[in-house]
């Protein structure tokens, strides 16, 4: 591409609306432009980079034996009604009607569509296993679109679906995708962790999220300081702290005016927050559920929902529901005489001695409370782990960091094949539902994550495989005919061997050209300047400050050397 003929969209200023570096740089380098909240148009440079990510994904999917399909983004409601998700997807789904008043949606994901394809086209075990994938536009009316294409309302997803005849087959298909994902993110030069993820109340068979660490991430990832353990905090098991045994003391009711939060209670009783157990009242679908965790711990809603066998809606109860359950104002709930459908007690609480809880009476607390003597409930792991606790795999201290999910792989089992009656005939002649897996990667989000991890104050620093262009040739002085001619020859020669190359033939000062080249993040820059008189050019990597002076005839070899490193 010759810059004199291209639409150059670089901006020097940092756009005010962009909070994170990838969003700022995607705008400053002119990769994309916003059209509406969470809706972006890709400019040529951005599209080229996006295609590079797609190429890597496609290559690895093909290598893993998956077959590319392309389904429609416009999906009839019937399929979603069959799976039951027409009602549960909520406002995130873009819904529309056709001229005959029939319901459709713009696909936020395609489990239903691919299950439908499988039930129509795959009849026999002989056609299994099979993994189908597509790279296609998805639509989600996100509550908070933000960080540019990291969380947008229209985005490109690679989604794959595997169909197997049994769970051993699913394990193989799933592992193939796991390996492919590792390769994809390695080739994109993204540092990410495969974190164990929750697979819901139904499955438990397996799910992993590929998470990139980021301050602006919306998930907490737990990872071990010593081994390779990583998990979403929702999933990571907590080990109950063992408390020192004490003689059980007599229950006492204490007047605690104006003390209801743990901080207020700590200063009122002058004891550690570990001496309290808080009782949270949740509304989970139609049920009112009490959940007890130690004063210094946080409840884990995913573990709670799983313990109840799944739920659609989970929220902390409103004041009225709390009053009905406790006969007190919010803030004084406790396990003794609590009127709830179910009481879940974190294991740690069941091990405590002589602790303090709300008395289900406004302005009162009980002290010297003991599990089993004063109350009982369903004991289990209902809390979030905290920094420094023991790794469930090796026992070393764990760390917690914020992360963004770039990919997700999931063993679905028969969740969709059963509800949609997608069956095949097995070897023994019986009809069986497909055993399915699903596998997603956010293509735009991956691109943004590459930029988030590869930049400096001057701009993007593309890894070679994702770079929209790999080399930029800069004639230093526009009016110097020799420089221009030699630069052009080099440009043609690089193009001829398949390099994605830019010629900056604009009538601009060299300083401006260098600044743009840095902002665009082109991995290699070749400057044809004064030294061309001695047959030499300057070669510079975007990732390094060093300038190498190289013979004009040898510079293509130098470029090839970089390609060999991929
Ligand atoms: P998140 O928790 O970030 O909303 P999700 O769990 O909804 O993600 P999936 O349904 O598993 O995501 O979708 C597969 C992949 O699609 C995700 O791993 C992510 O990379 C990408 N993705 C999901 N939502 C968006 C979005 N709004 N914008 C861009 N990419 C997205
Ligand atoms: Mg989401």
UniProtKB/TrEMBL annotation:
Enzyme class (EC, first level): ligase
Occurrences of domain Aminoacyl-transfer RNA synthetases class-II family profile (ranges): 38-463
Pfam hit, one: tRNA_edit
Enzyme Commission number(s): 6.1.1.15
Top-rank lineage group of the source organism: Bacteria
Main location: cytoplasm
Any one Gene Ontology BP term: prolyl-tRNA aminoacylation
InterPro entries on file: aa-tRNA-synt_IIb (IPR002314), aa-tRNA-synth_II (IPR006195), aa-tRNA-synth_II/BPL/LPL (IPR045864), Anticodon-bd (IPR004154), Anticodon-bd_dom_sf (IPR036621), Pro-tRNA-ligase_IIa (IPR002316), Pro-tRNA-synth_IIa_bac-type (IPR004500), Pro-tRNA-Synthase_IIa_type1 (IPR023717)
Keyword Iron in record: no
Molecular-function GO terms, alphabetical: aminoacyl-tRNA deacylase activity; ATP binding; catalytic activity, acting on a protein; proline-tRNA ligase activity; transferase activity
GO CC terms of this entry: cytosol
Keyword Ribonucleoprotein assigned: no
Localization terms from the record: Cytoplasm
Reaction(s) catalysed by this chain's protein: tRNA(Pro) + L-proline + ATP = L-prolyl-tRNA(Pro) + AMP + diphosphate
This protein's UniProt keywords: Aminoacyl-tRNA synthetase, ATP-binding, Cytoplasm, Ligase, Nucleotide-binding, Protein biosynthesis
Record function comment: Catalyzes the attachment of proline to tRNA(Pro) in a two-step reaction: proline is first activated by ATP to form Pro-AMP and then transferred to the acceptor end of tRNA(Pro). As ProRS can inadvertently accommodate and process non-cognate amino acids such as alanine and cysteine, to avoid such errors it has two additional distinct editing activities against alanine. One activity is designated as 'pretransfer' editing and involves the tRNA(Pro)-independent hydrolysis of activated Ala-AMP.
HAMAP family: Pro_tRNA_synth_type1
Family: Belongs to the class-II aminoacyl-tRNA synthetase family. ProS type 1 subfamily.
Record remark: domains: Consists of three domains: the N-terminal catalytic domain, the editing domain and the C-terminal anticodon-binding domain.
Quaternary structure annotation from Swiss-Prot or TrEMBL: Homodimer.
Designated name of the protein: Proline--tRNA ligase
Species whose genome carries this gene: Clostridium cellulovorans (strain ATCC 35296 / DSM 3052 / OCM 3 / 743B)
Lineage, broadest ranks: Bacteria, Bacillati, Bacillota, Clostridia, Eubacteriales
Gene: proS
